[in-house]
Fold this sequence. Notes:
A: alpha+beta; B: mainly beta; globular
Amino acid sequence: MMVEDDILKEFLAESRENLDALDREFVALESDPSARHRIATIFRAVHTIKGTSGFLGFHKLEALTHAGENVLSLLRDGRLALTPEMTTALLAMVDGVRAILSAVEQTQAEGAQDFTALATTLNALLPPELAPQRAPQPTGFVSFDDEAPAAPAPAAPAAAAAPTPHAASPAPAAPASEAMRPAAITGPAPALNTVAPHASPNTIEPPSDAHGTTSSESSVRVDVVLLDKLMNLVGELVLARNQILQLRAQTGDTAFAGTSQRLNLITTELQEGVMKTRMQPIGNVWNKFPRVVRDLARQCHKQVRLDMEGAETELDRTIIEAIKDPLTHVVRNAIDHGIESPDERAAKGKNPTGRLSLRAFHEGGRVNIVIADDGAGIDPERVRQTAIRKGVVTAERAARMSDREAVALVFAPGFSTAAQVTNLSGRGVGMDVVKTNIEKIGGNVEIESHPGQGMTLKIRIPLTLAIVPALIITDGGERYAIPQVSLVELVRVEGAAARANVEYIQGAPLYRLRGNLLPLVYLHRALGEPERAVPANDDERVLNIVVVQADEHQFGLVVDGVSDTEEIVVKPLGKEIKGVTLFAGATIMGDGRVALILDVMGLAQRAGVLTNARDRERASGRVASQSQADDKTTMLLFQVEGDGRIALPLSMVARLEEFPRERVERAGRRSVVQYRNEILPLIDVCQALHGEPTAVGDGPLQVVVYAEEGRSVGLVVQRILDIVHEPLVLKQRATAPGLLGAATIQGRVTDVLDVHGVIRSIDPTFFDRQSAA
Amino acid sequence: MAHARQLCTFYLHDLYLGVDVTRVQEVIRVQPMTRVPLASREVRGLINLRGQIVTALELRERLGFPPRPEDRPPMNVVVRTADASVAFLVDEIGDVVEVADESFERVPETVPLAMREMFQGIYKVTPRLLLVLDPERAIASASDA
């Protein structure tokens, strides 16, 4: 049957909404089977789909919904009590309807799937004494209630002509309905209306609440493409407005000034309004969770209660789209891996029903989504073992990790804690994908685990991607925008302090910000622009530092000037310049010129503030280089030249030795000493780091012996200073080859040696031979 | 009857070039541009084209010609691509001309490959040969760089 495109679209959209509502209602119903008004809602939704599908000639759909409607009508009238089996069958019907609808959407036909069995299952749920009622008349004859204005007449012949699958039960309905007058499922036209008086008071719905009328009166469906176009136009208007405001300042005409002021206000309001049209409540994503949770819990034989709070929290639709899958994954994970089976929970003295809560709320211009369960939590020890087995970290590193760090390993690529890969989660979309997807939209994820008591996942995401608040800075005569989400603070240092407070380690500038080391990145250098002339006079020196956050690291971006914060409309860059990872996009400023949006992550990577942590860990062997290591590390402090202090974890030191200078011999081009019946190659640390040999007097050589798997190397240093037991926290990543970075030790800035790097710089094959051996 | 094709023509250095007219969004005068640090050399900057951000590519740089004399402001030929629009900076704009398929020929092998692959072919029109630019190829090299 040819169907008008518009009608079909309308039908599909409306049915979708009805189906989503159905999922929700069913699950709510299961927890509170006495809520008959819910059944009434469900019944109406199914009835609407059935009615329209009959009218449009989708007979399979009609037959299926009809079977469901039969059961529902008895439930509504209290003639049947809801059982879990019933809910499952009814939910299966909802799924079936969904499948047919998507087939309709794609092919305009109902598809080849057969739902006769499902209809039979549904019919089998009816009590035997009501059996005759199971035999429905060709559904085309089911009249529409007054809210479905479609005349039944045109549909009827079509329906009658094409027998529906369950019309296999051919008994005419009319006589059957006698037995169950009040239910009136298959009854004639006035059926729905006659039902009401018989039903218990709470099933009587206010007439205005009848299916969908209220929502269709107060809202209209708008094409998303049109919304996007409107958004673009408003962006244009904002620009034109900004230009007019600039003009006004020049002309001084009062009438014009008044008009432009009005234009200004209207534009602002319009912009806000259009922005709002793009906002959707997060509930749109959450709606499907009750169903997901229910199905999953049944499959895993677990009991789970889902609490949702803040479903009305609004987000831009692009963001809603982006978080859909990550959230679903997290919810699945929580049920599959987090919440224990009822027996297990009872044994632990917990409520057999697990609790999963979703909470969304606004905070500081961002949206927080907190997903918490009261399950087993994450066992850090198990995470360590798995991570080691999967080669995510080395055993040594895992042992050095704090529990918190270990738990965060679940975000590492290639990691999945599931003891066995179930069909629920662990389908290859791991937590790393969740993290990546959230980060892609400018959000971040934190995990907190209390073994035995559950875990909490906190996701923070921006409200919108289209228009974001940003700080406008200037550098080299151009303006750049830095999204506010990555901003931490602004620091301005003037005069002599601008010079005095910047210290250099291996040429890398650092600023002391309230006792912490802040690596500095000069924007013009990162952008490859020419160096600036430095004012000779200290008084003219100004240092504008924009402190930004990239991943877990902070760094200071040194810029020429800081202008203002502004709401900017983010526009993508063409592929000709996408390769430049320093820019996240572009925007149009008030004067009509284009300004680039800086990508803080890209900047950090380019400037080497964030080195690839994993590569570095591998290279550095066992050095704890995690920024949050709570554990203290015993370190050897030594001096190489001048007052440069270098630290090396003591665990990497085999012995400290002194060799008289005359014992040093040459082997090939290297200095060696005979040591414990072996030849110990010597590496001058100063030479390796600075290219100059260690300045030693006539005294003996101070040598730190480093041993790994039977091979040793002597590191020649100028002076051994101390052995300290302090937390080793790298405040700044590597600045020069041979160094891992800098840390504050004993209150002083100290470089941390990269032993592997130093050895490799002198003897590139040292580790190869070792692994070959 | 052979098919005819309309080309929007322009001049660049000593060449007479054309782009399929259906691909040309518009032709505009020199616009204020925002430089893009670290981008490849032919990327001259970003233009605000009524709210649409368009990358301006210097076609002279792309084809390896010497820079345009300072006193000759370039013209922007804004061309639609599958991705977004791109503005080619050229010396001067010519007419829209109609060319017949019979006069079409491939670019001779003697033309250096780097340049040859940026053209779809040559139309033998008088008074001078008209080279047809392949916008995708001309852009691709910028994004590869």
